[in-house]
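Class, study these two lines:
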Amino acid sequence: MVYVTSWDEFVERSVQLFRADPESCLKFKTDQAQDAKKMEKLNNIFFTLMARGPEVDPSEVTGKDQVEAQPTKKGRGRKQ
């Protein structure tokens, strides 16, 4: 196993490794909470690569999908 110290390098190398050999493992060790928060975006990149194929450009993945907000209903209870 290889440890990578930079988050950006880890993302780039893990995507390359997934395309070359999806059964291999690359580790990233951190004690920073902000690095842990970046895992959601990385998971979305891998979900996209698995769903659309390894040739997809991961820069197209934005993180959370933009969902149109539906208007909320005002008030509570029954209509009278």
User: Anything to note?
Assistant: The first helix runs from residue 7 to 20. The chain has a mean pLDDT of 77.
